[in-house]
């Protein structure tokens, strides 16, 4: 046989190889078609052996999904490696996430998810009774350190003011030095600093190496955990040298470093912890999680403070800084809209004071602009991947337990049945003829997801984006480098990141109002305003009865700080 093969001339060998490949492919097609006829699963495009539909997704899976939804309908399935993935679009999203919430609330057992917060992540872990409890504690803690009541809102506003002041000083300095500069990293540090003040009572300077190392690698993180990440569906790629393996090694390393950073903060907080003086979100979590542990009667139960704080710090700084990057990009792309924002803010606020939370209802154009940024860019195009927790069905299609489910938020935001000219950036679409914000229409924008896994930072995010945008419009003017006009291109991941762009920032007056509002004694490392903020903070926790099977809320634990 060997001798026969050796004797075969090269063109015959090629023909044999081609025949084998054709045979294998036909076999695969036949099995696929037979499988499809015998199941009542959703329709979908034909998949290649081994890789499935991965190569067809290209650099923008959400746009590929939009094309497939046109062809196969709002529920279709693809193959990624050996995994079957159901993709939900349009009206099937509400049906699955809200009406059949628990059935679609799981997370897949993806390789990458196991490395986030040492596998104990609230956001990337699947739906269990413990997840439900941690989620409730996290939700109420976030609320009570941001939008919970008038006092916490003011405290949060103060953090934003402090950070906008620092940022504008830096931007003006950079403009003087370089004329045009790239603001992306500064926006990440600035957003991370707001959350750092809330979570740890501490801020970092823009060139703090350790902080930059921790928060400056969002791109790597979101690329790996976004829907359609290759290593999750073809885990065998980890086992031999290739670019995906290298990227995954970096991902593991950045998660280790991130967790170590958060763990250090939690250890410091535990050393100083006093239940009578809850100073920041970490203190509050230590209190709440310890209560849960004591109630469970298992003193050696894992400490979930680090993963939960890590989730909140990580989820907020990546998403919010991406939102700000898009807001500034669109402000300079459409200077006439920036001028209209400034006009509205000047009219309502005037030049003698700073904009504040109370102005929100009188600034409909600002809100319309922010909602249009979220709708148009859909910068979280798909949610974190979901999975089914039981055998179920959706829109008449059967979906087995543990099926991976991608939720295409962008399909709602660009649905021509919902939006006039969805591909045009037009904040005016949210305003009535009398200039009022159309509340029904803004609630149609889908970027924080829905149902059991809905983002817990939605209210905080809207407040922060409102304050940031209004303060920028009131305090400065932003222009783009004419040599490099901005484009709307992006890098795909859990969040869509705009490509780098350069801007110049000039103050409209001076920083006197911001300096007065934040107090001149703001030091580099610690906010004096953080201390003012903790005075009299009143936190209301939902205290969960861990013994009750339904994890129902049984009591309210009230923590009053009395510094
Ligand atoms: C503009 C800003 C933000 C956007 C667009 C956003 C969007 C999202 C989305 C789409 C999800 C996934 C939901 C799903 O899988 O169905 C999510 C989950 C989550 N977000 Fe946000 N988010 C933002 C800001 C924040 C902030 C500020 C926080 C924290 C304070 C936060 C904390 C979380 C957490 C903990 C989860 C996991 C929830 C779970 O799995 O149960 N997010 N977010």
Written account of the structure:
With 563 residues, this protein is of the alpha+beta class. 51% of the residues lie in helices and 9% in strands. The chain is built from 21 helices and twelve strands. It has helices at residues 2-7, 10-38, 54-57, 61-72, 91-99, 129-144, 150-178, 184-200, 209-215, 218-225, 230-233, 243-272, 281-296, 305-333, 335-349, 364-377, 409-413, 439-442, 458-475, 512-518, 528-534, and strands at 75-80, 83-88, 386-387, 392-394, 397-399, 404-407, 476-480, 490-491, 497-498, 503-507, 538-544, 553-560. It has a four-stranded mixed β-sheet with strand order 1-2-6-3. Strand 8 and strand 9 (497-498) form a beta hairpin. Helix 7 (150-178) packs antiparallel against helix 21 and helix 14 crosses helix 16. Mean pLDDT is 84; it is low at 520-563. Protoporphyrin IX containing FE binds at residues 122-123, 135, 138, 142, 311-312, 315-316, 319-320, 323, 380, 383-384, 407, 447-449, 453, 455-457, 460-461.
What does the secondary structure layout of this molecule look like, with pairings?
Layout: H1 2-7, H2 10-38, H3 54-57, H4 61-72, E1 75-80, E2 83-88, H5 91-99, H6 129-144, H7 150-178, H8 184-200, H9 209-215, H10 218-225, H11 230-233, H12 243-272, H13 281-296, H14 305-333, H15 335-349, H16 364-377, E3 386-387, E4 392-394, E5 397-399, E6 404-407, H17 409-413, H18 439-442, H19 458-475, E7 476-480, E8 490-491, E9 497-498, E10 503-507, H20 512-518, H21 528-534, E11 538-544, E12 553-560
Parallel strand pairs: 2-6
Antiparallel strand pairs: 1-2, 3-6, 4-5, 7-10, 8-9, 11-12
């Amino acid at each position: 046989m060997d001798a026969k093969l050796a004797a075969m001339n090269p063109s015959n060998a090629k023909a044999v190889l081609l025949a084998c490949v054709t045979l294998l492919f036909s076999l695969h097609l036949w099995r696929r078609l037979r499988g499809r006829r015998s199941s009542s699963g959703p329709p979908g495009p034909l998949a290649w052996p081994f890789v499935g539909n991965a190569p067809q997704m290209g650099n923008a899976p959400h746009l590929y999904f939009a094309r497939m939804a046109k062809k196969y309908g709002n529920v279709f399935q693809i193959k990624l490696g050996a995994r079957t993935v159901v993709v939900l679009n349009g009206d099937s999203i509400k049906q699955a996430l809200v009406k059949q919430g628990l059935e679609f609330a799981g997370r897949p057992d993806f390789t990458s998810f196991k490395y986030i917060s040492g596998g104990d992540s609230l956001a990337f872990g699947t739906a269990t009774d413990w997840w439900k409890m941690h989620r409730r504690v996290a939700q109420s803690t976030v609320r009570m350190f941001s939008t919970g009541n008038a006092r916490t809102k003011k405290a949060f506003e103060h953090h934003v003011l402090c950070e906008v002041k620092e940022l504008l000083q830096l931007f003006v300095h950079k403009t003087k030095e370089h004329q045009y500069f790239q603001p992306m990293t500064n926006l990440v540090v600035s957003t991370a600093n707001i959350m750092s003040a809330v979570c740890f009572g501490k801020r970092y300077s823009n060139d703090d190496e350790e902080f930059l190392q921790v928060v400056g690698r969002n791109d790597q993180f979101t690329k790996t955990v976004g829907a359609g990440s290759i290593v999750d569906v073809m885990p065998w790629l980890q086992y031999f040298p290739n670019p995906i393996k290298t990227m995954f090694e970096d991902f593991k390393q950045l998660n280790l470093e991130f967790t170590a950073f958060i763990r250090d903060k939690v250890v410091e907080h535990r050393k100083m912890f006093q239940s009578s003086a809850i100073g920041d979100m970490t203190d509050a979590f230590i209190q709440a999680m310890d209560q849960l542990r004591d109630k469970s009667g298992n003193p050696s139960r894992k400490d979930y403070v680090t993963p939960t704080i890590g989730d909140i710090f990580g989820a907020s700084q990546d998403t919010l800084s991406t939102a700000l990057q898009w807001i500034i990009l669109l402000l300079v792309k459409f200077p006439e809209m920036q001028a209209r924002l400034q006009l509205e803010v000047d009219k309502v606020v005037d030049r003698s004071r700073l904009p504040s939370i109370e102005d929100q209802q009188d600034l409909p154009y600002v809100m319309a602009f922010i909602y249009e940024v979220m709708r148009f860019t859909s910068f979280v195009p798909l949610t974190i991947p979901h999975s089914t927790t039981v055998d179920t069905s959706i829109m008449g299609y059967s979906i087995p337990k543990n099926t991976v489910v991608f939720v295409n938020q962008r399909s709602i935001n660009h649905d021509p049945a919902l939006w006039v000219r969805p591909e045009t950036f037009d904040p005016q679409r949210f305003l009535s003829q009398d200039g009022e914000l159309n509340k029904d229409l803004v609630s149609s924008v889908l970027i924080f997801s829905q149902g059991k896994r809905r983002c817990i930072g939605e209210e905080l995010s809207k407040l922060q984006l409102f304050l940031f945008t209004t303060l920028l419009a009131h305090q400065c003017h932003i222009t783009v480098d004419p040599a490099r006009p901005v484009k709307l291109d992006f890098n795909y991941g859990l969040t869509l990141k705009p490509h780098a762009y350069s801007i110049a920032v000039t103050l409209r007056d001076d920083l006197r109002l911001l300096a007065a509002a934040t107090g001149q004694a703001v030091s580099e490392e610690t906010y004096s305003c953080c201390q003012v903020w903790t005075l009299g903070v009143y936190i209301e926790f939902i205290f969960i009865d861990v013994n009750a099977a339904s994890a129902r809320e049984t009591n309210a634990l009230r923590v009053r700080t009395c510094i």
